[in-house]
Amino acid sequence: MNPVDPALLKAIPAPHPDVAPLPPAAVLDDGVRMLRGVPYALPERVRPLELDLWLPAAGSGKDPAPVVLYAHGGAWMRGRRDDLGMRTRDWRPGPFARIAAAGCAVACVDYRLSGEAPFPAPLTDLRAALRWLTLRAAELGIDTGRTVAWGESAGGHLASLLALARPEPGPTPPVPHLAGAVVWYGPSDLTAPRGGFSPAGPGTPEARLLGGVPADVPALAREASPLRQVHAQAPPFFLVHGAADTMVDPSHSEDLAAALRQAGGSARLRLVPGADHGWFGAEEHEVADVFGASLRFVRDAVS
Fold it and tell me: pTM for the whole thing?
């Protein structure tokens, strides 16, 4: 066999996400622009990671636009990056288009699931997405210095950790400090029994996330627990939880809010009476009100 031409090997791979051309944007109602499936990272031995972008109408509001970085739910095992939960799936326009119409860019981000890589891989991926958005900010017309993380369920857990992460040396451009976090019914503590969760239980989503039973890897469980990562420089949090949640006990949000306040930070807590996980059982107007309150928090945080 003849040796492979090095120029061929160099030409075969697609351009790296840091320099790849952006896809054309589709224009939706109200002039909102949407870019689907934009690669942002190429982790070893797994699929390329992509994000979807919703951008405000060209020339609307103040340029550059603040950013909502969204992390989906699914017990860290599954889920779609463009899904804000079961109660918003039939909204027209959809929730992310509504956020963009209100003047904020939205980046809905893939992250490695627990069957692909253990923690801290998904948090590393969110940080990589924020780095990529910062690198391409001028092209996109966004300001990642005004970013709010927003997540539901497992994504709320990751959004909390992203907001609580302290600056790390090394990335170019540096990952900016977040302006806030919106957390819908997210787990905050992988170290203690809560509701139906036990850190000694094998086969749980938490054990799959960590790559081991939480009680057997206490240092990693603590690192993966937003409640154990609270510090005085944390940005403002808006924590919303169903008071009747049977999957993630409301005490996760209650205790995280208390810890943030005790550390000197700002935390708003809202419990939705009668609502189970994913706002199951809540009235439609209650879901709409939670969404509206979350969007108002975002706009206040980035103003």
Answer: 0.96
